[in-house]
Automatic annotation (TrEMBL):
Keyword field: DNA-binding
Top-level taxonomic group: Bacteria
Single annotated GO MF: DNA binding
Organism: Sphingobium xenophagum
Protein name in UniProt: AbrB/MazE/SpoVT family DNA-binding domain-containing protein
UniProt key word DNA-binding: yes
Amino acid sequence: MSEEYKAKIFKSGNSLALRLPKALGFKEGAEMTLREDHGRFTFEPAQNERKIDVSKFAGKAPWLEPLSREDFDDSPRDWHLMGRDASGA
């Protein structure tokens, strides 16, 4: 038997967001795939794409050295405190 829930759309920055009930059990930050078919919307957890681990690449190029923070024009930000990710979304 399927359940029915109500969700509310609200403005988040320059975008719209859909607040989902906690009872659905999704975790914060979970990626979803949203589909629209003739005005009917469905969503489901996104398929996890395989990510490439680049953590050991630095050892392959010993002549590369990390940049110091002084080499950046912009100061670091705590994006998580601003409620946004690093892309500004």
